[in-house]
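Postdoc handover notes: sequence design on the structure in folder B. Input C-alpha cells:
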C-alpha cells in the first residue's frame, strides 16, 4: 500500500512550487506538476487568442491545471503519480479512465487537450524532451538511461528515473516520461470511422456520447491491403471526408472494428494536410492545431513548429481511442507529437499505461 512520505514532501519543497502533492479520496498521494494558464497567442499567432482550451472547463476559465509528474501506478484501484515505481500497464481505456476518476472530484485521466497544452508549451520554448525510446535508454542519446523496472527489466524503467532531459521542461521537477517508456491513454478524444470527436474545451466530465463531431477526418492515401495488420494502406491525410478506408468492407457508422490494416506516418510533423481540410472553418482548423493533431492549418501553409517528433498511426474504421508519446521500442516514432488512433478501447497492451490529471 502506498502511504504519505515525509521525504517526498521535502523533495517537493525543493521544487520551488513546480510540484505539489495532492491526495485522493483514500489519502493516497500523487506528485503533480502545476501548469499555469497561458494564452494561445503566446504559443503561435495562427492558433487564435485567449486561454488554451486545456484551461477552460465547460466554459469556465481555470488559472492552472495539474498533471501527474509520473506515469501512474494503480494502487487499490487508484492511479497514483509517484517516482521510482513501475508504471502500471495492460489496462483498457475504460479501466485507465476509471482508475483516475475514482480518486475523487477533480481527478481524471489526462486529456487530449492537456497533452496538447503541455506539448505546445514545450515546442514554444524550443525544447522536446527525450525518453526511454530504445530499451532503457534514449535512442538519440544512448548514454541517457533509467533504472530498469523489475517486471520488465530489459525494456521499461521505473517512473522518473531518467535524467532531467526526460522531463518536459528539462529540469528535475518537470513532467517525466512524456516521451517513451510506455504509451499513455488520453481521454477526451476519439475517432469514429475516421472522424475526430472532441469536447469543445477541457470538460473532462462530459459524457463521451456528447462529444461533438468536428468534421475532420483522417483519410488514407490508399485502400486496404491483405488484412494482415501491415502498414499497407498508405499514409494518413487530414481531410473533410474519407476517400480510402484502411480496411474493407467500407464501414457503416461504427462498422468494422477489426484490427487489420492501418495508415502510418513516421514523422507526424509532415502529416499530409489535404485540400479537403482547407474547406473546413477557420475555427475547426485552429482547433486541430490547438490539439496537436494538425501540424499546419492549410494544405499550402507552413508548419506551426518545425520537426515535432513522433509518428502517427490511424485506423479509420470503427471507434478508436488515442494514446500518445510512444514506448520503449519506438525510437524516432516516439515524441511529443506521437499519436496512435489505432486501437479499440478494449485493448490491453504491455506497453500502454496512463497518467492522472487534476483540475478543480
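Designed sequence:
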Amino acid at each position: 500500500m502506498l502511504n504519505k512520505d515525509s521525504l517526498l514532501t521535502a523533495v517537493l519543497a525543493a521544487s520551488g512550487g513546480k510540484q505539489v502533492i495532492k491526495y485522493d479520496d483514500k489519502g493516497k498521494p500523487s506528485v503533480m506538476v502545476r501548469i499555469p494558464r497561458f494564452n494561445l497567442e503566446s504559443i503561435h499567432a495562427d492558433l487564435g487568442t485567449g486561454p488554451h482550451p486545456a484551461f477552460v472547463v465547460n466554459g469556465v476559465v481555470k488559472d492552472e491545471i495539474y498533471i501527474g509528474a509520473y506515469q501512474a501506478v494503480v494502487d487499490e484501484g487508484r492511479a497514483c503519480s509517484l517516482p521510482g515505481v513501475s508504471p502500471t500497464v495492460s489496462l483498457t481505456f475504460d479501466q485507465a479512465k476509471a482508475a483516475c476518476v475514482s480518486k475523487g472530484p477533480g481527478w481524471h485521466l489526462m486529456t487530449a487537450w492537456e497533452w496538447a497544452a503541455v506539448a505546445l508549451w514545450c515546442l514554444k520554448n524550443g525544447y522536446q524532451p527525450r525518453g526511454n525510446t530504445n530499451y532503457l535508454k534514449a535512442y538519440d542519446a544512448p548514454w541517457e538511461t533509467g533504472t530498469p523496472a523489475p517486471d520488465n527489466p530489459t525494456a521499461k524503467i521505473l517512473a522518473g528515473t531518467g535524467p532531467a532531459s526526460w522531463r518536459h521542461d528539462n529540469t528535475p521537477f518537470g513532467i517525466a516520461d512524456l516521451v517513451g517508456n510506455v504509451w499513455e491513454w488520453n481521454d477526451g478524444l476519439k475517432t469514429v470511422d475516421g472522424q475526430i470527436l472532441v469536447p469543445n474545451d477541457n470538460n473532462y466530465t462530459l459524457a463521451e456520447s456528447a462529444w461533438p463531431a468536428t468534421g475532420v477526418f483522417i483519410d488514407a492515401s490508399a485502400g486496404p491491403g491483405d488484412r494482415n495488420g501491415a502498414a499497407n494502406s498508405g499514409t494518413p491525410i487530414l481531410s473533410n471526408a474519407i476517400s480510402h478506408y484502411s480496411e474493407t468492407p467500407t464501414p457503416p457508422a461504427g462498422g468494422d472494428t477489426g484490427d487489420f490494416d492501418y495508415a502510418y506516418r513516421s514523422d507526424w510533423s509532415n502529416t499530409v494536410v489535404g485540400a479537403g481540410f482547407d474547406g473546413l472553418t477557420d475555427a475547426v482548423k485552429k482547433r486541430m492545431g490547438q490539439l496537436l493533431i494538425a501540424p499546419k492549418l492549410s494544405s499550402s501553409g507552413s508548419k506551426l513548429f518545425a520537426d515535432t517528433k513522433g509518428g502517427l498511426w490511424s485506423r479509420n474504421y470503427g471507434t478508436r481511442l488515442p494514446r500518445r508519446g510512444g514506448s520503449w521500442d519506438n525510437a524516432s516514432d516516439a515524441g511529443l507529437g506521437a499519436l496512435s488512433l489505432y486501437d479499440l478501447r478494449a485493448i490491453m497492451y504491455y506497453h500502454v499505461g496512463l497518467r492522472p490529471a487534476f483540475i478543480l
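Context for whoever picks this up: Residues 187-325+334-341 form one domain. Don't rerun without checking with the PI first.
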